[in-house]
Amino acid sequence: VFMRKKRIAMIVPSLWNGGAEKVAADMSLYLSDAGYDVFFFLNQFDRKNSYHHKGREVVVMQEALWSTGNLCRQICQYQKWAWIYRKYKRQYQIDISISFMVPENFINVLSDIGDRKILTFHSVTSQVANYYGQVFVKPYILKMMCIKATNVVSVSKYVKRDLENLVGKRGKKIEVIYNSIDERSLKKITEESIAVRQCEDIILYVGRLDDEKRPWIIVRVMQEVIRRHKNAKLLMLGRGENWHVLKRLIDKFNLEKHVELLGFVNNVAQYMVCAKMIVFCSEAEACPCAMLEAIAVGLPIVTVDCPGGIREIISSDRRGYLKPCKKNEVLECGIVTPPISTQKNNIGRKKLCQEEKMLAQGVCMLLENDNLCNCLGRNAKEYAQRFSKERIRKEWLALLEKI
Predict the structure, then answer these.
(1) Which helix (H) or strand (E) holds 252?
(2) Pairing of strands 334-337, 329-330
């Protein structure tokens, strides 16, 4: 008797620019190789800029899963969108639906057709609650989503604890599966790359230029860095809503020769091999793909301490993030600096706050100490083995087999 392949819908906004989008694209490669038929349910698709993936791309609707107005109006809107997703699930005879990020998780649950639904959480959910007025961040809605789902997957232990604090403990239902690193692809990219380290003082930022990533902080900090290191240069890879804000900030501080906005780049590893370090300034980070790629190529990390899975990635501390540090700490794979409270509406002031100066100090410490840089880089490559594609692939395939 002929048995058709199991069909998996990956519900994700797009296939470019974000960490969750990259995870979905990477998953499609080994799910397809394992014999699943993969369909991407997208809000937008740009083949030229998309991450490498396997599967059929289906643009379900060309608008973000985001609604405004009172909660009653929002629920009506999401029910309308759920009807559209339900239609596509039936059309493509979907067996398993895997959704990425909170709005997509909400739609996945609402568009139930009897399919198995796996919700994945790629952000610190309590921080997402800062999106004021959105119905999908209400604790009772989140709890309903987790109850209705077949399985819930968080990308770090901290994300799991954070979600459980909001919805109550669900026992074994919330599982931790980290994002993965494709070491072979990264090795091939770095070996083929013509990018040779021409300037020893290249600093890298990789990520969306959105508010939660707070990219303006590293631009502000560059004032102090170049005062101490004239050859330092910051390369910023990514797109987002703050592109023009950063452009104006660069002009205001006369940093045109020291800060370059490069936009979305598919193969960031080509830039990582010519950089001295990578810097993160986020308000929260669940399990950043850029950080995983960085440690895989032996690139030291400098990061502002924040809620999420950063400490699980760059240190041996199994407890992960418990409370923010009050002074710079050198961990196994990088340097963690105290939280920075600089708000977007106050980024034009020239004077740096104490915490911004401490971030600058962490950056300069690596620019001035090659031995420390090399030590952190060696540790990073060793720690990267915990997130190998083969290991994470086995965990996902075991979960799918179980359900």
Answers:
(1) helix 243-252
(2) antiparallel
Residue 303 has phi, psi (to 5 degrees) of -140, 145
pLDDT tens-digit series, residues 362-394? 999 999 999 999 999 999 999 999 999 999 999
Residue 198: Cβ within 10 Å count: 7
Q: Specify burial of residue 156 (Cβ count, 10 A radius: 0-12, 13-18, 19+).
A: buried
Q: Round to whole Å and give the CA distance between 57 and 14.
A: 10
Whole-angstrom Cα distance, residue 70 to residue 129?
A: 16
Residues of the chain where predicted confidence (pLDDT) is lower than 50: 1, 194-197
Whether the full predicted model's pTM is greater than 0.90, yes or no, is yes
> Distance between CA 197 and CA 187 in Å, rounded?
16
Residue 133: what pLDDT? 74
What pLDDT score does 2 carry? 55
Residue reference for tokens 């502002």: 304
**DSSP code of 139?**
H
- Phi-psi label, residue 381: left if phi above 0, alpha if psi -120 to 50, beta otherwise: alpha
How many degrees, rounded to 5, is the angle at CA 61 between CA 59 and CA 64? 110
Q: Measured between alpha carbons, how far is 267 from 375 in angstroms, rounded to an integer?
A: 25
For the range 269-272, what are the long-range contacts, defined as Cβ-Cβ under 8 Å and sequence gap of 24 or more? 269/186, 269/189, 269/190, 269/193, 269/293, 269/297, 270/189, 270/190, 270/193, 270/195, 271/195, 271/204, 271/206, 271/235, 271/237, 272/190, 272/204, 272/297, 272/299
Distance CA 105, CA 16 (A): 19
The closest alpha carbon to 73, from 61, 81, 85, 83, belongs to 81
Alpha carbons within 13 angstroms on the beta-carbon side of residue 219 total 33
Structure tokens at 217: 């902080």
Residue 136: predicted pLDDT? 87
Closest Cα to residue 290, out of 14, 20, 6? Answer: 20
Helix (H, G, I), strand (E, B) or coil at 15: coil
Which residue, chain included where needed, has tokens 């692939």? 393
